[in-house]
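DOMAIN: structural biology
WANTED: fold as tokens
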Amino acid sequence: MQQDRCDNTYTAECWSAFKKGDEKAFVMLHDLFFHSLHAYAFRMLQDPDLAYDAIQELFLKLWEKRAALPEVQFVKAYLMRCLRCAILNKLRSLKLYELKITTRFHTPDIEFSPEEIRIKKESASFNTRQLTKMINTLPARQKEVIYLRFYEGLSYKEISRILNINYQSLVNNINRIMNRFKTALRNHPEFFWIILLFPFVL
């Protein structure tokens, strides 16, 4: 197969082969998605070692239950959803307060830094700290939507599956984000390009 290794068709073929016991396909899936999965797990756990352990536990369970797993078209989204569920279940069951992991929220509360906020080159003079502050004041679920779409490049359909919400609820979340930004930028019309950008990057 000569396709892009992250192409949905290629990864779906790897998934099918893995379900049949192909160890090379299993390793390929691990290698292809480890970075994205680790970044996502780290956002939720705020600990690189715990994030690594969560991924290894996930892949171990996947291998053990491979024959019973469904056929999957969007493998990255499926793995991220499985990882998210596993982490939230672990947090609930183990009550990891002693590790300073907050469990107040039903969803991970992702925080962004100014260095991570990517803006248009022609608007490079915009204060990224202001934009960071705006994003970090969003509810946890809305920040997670931004992360999955903007940083992981997932489609609305994939995001709705990961977060286990229907498509319309996702659209409603995006609309709420847009309204918050419109309110925040009301006195800064020169930065309204952000409003135009967000429907495409969220």
The chain has two domains: 8-99, 114-201.
